[in-house]
Amino acid sequence: MRPKTKKILFLFTTLIFMFFYIPIIILMAFSFNDSKVGTVWTGFTFDWYKSLFSNDQIISAVTNSLIIAVITTLIATVFGTLAALAIHRYNFPGKKAFNFLFYIPVVIPDIIVAVALLALYGWLDITLGISTVFPGHVAITISYVMLVVIARLAGLDASLEEAAKDLGANEWQTFWKVTFPLIFPGVLAGALLAFTISLDEFVISYFTTGPGSDTLPVLVYSMVRLGVSPEINALSTIMVLLIVIMVVITGRKMRVSK
Questions:
Q1: Does residue 244 fall inside a structural domain?
Q2: pTM for the predicted model, two decimal places
Q3: How would you describe this protein's topology in the membrane (predicted)?
Q4: Tell me, what CATH number does 176's domain have?
Q5: Residue 227: what pLDDT?
């Protein structure tokens, strides 16, 4: 590749990253702004962080989102990993159809899943609430976990499992002592992906939550229509910092596991 082409690609990549990250940096900066107007800087303050932790509506929405994301992640990680192991290792009738079903949530628009669930709940006369959000979130995240774990299994050296069996380990011992530690980075990556998707999911949550059970994305959407509150900027800053810390810790653990 010519030096001039490398410079152009580097410049193009830099511009893309600037396009994504500069708005986030500006949002974080304005979380310390003394003014309610998000476009005018009037001074430095921590008041919006104090106001955030005293806002029961936002705290309730964050709590709902975290509960949904954690439970969704646990369910999707367990069943996604089991599905990946089944598809990767075994041949059974309907395997292709079973495999195809797991790809559908990846490509199908969320709005279709949301409307279908809403119609189903209406037909079954189910009252909407926080519990009605889980099926939609699990349905879309389990496929992502399965795909990530399958990719990890594809690079697994089968001779290691065979060696463990030759040394007297049974199927259960081989899985927990050999297989699972080797695929754990993939399982962890799938779990983090499921958690992020569930925490960020808006469309399905918007259609399937009931009164008093709003998730954070739904609440932010309802607030944005009247203008972005500095409290939302403060909350976004905290979430960005927590995500960065979580990614750094996860990256170190994955390097250690290798």
A1: no
A2: 0.82
A3: Multi-pass membrane protein
A4: 1.10.3720.10
A5: 67
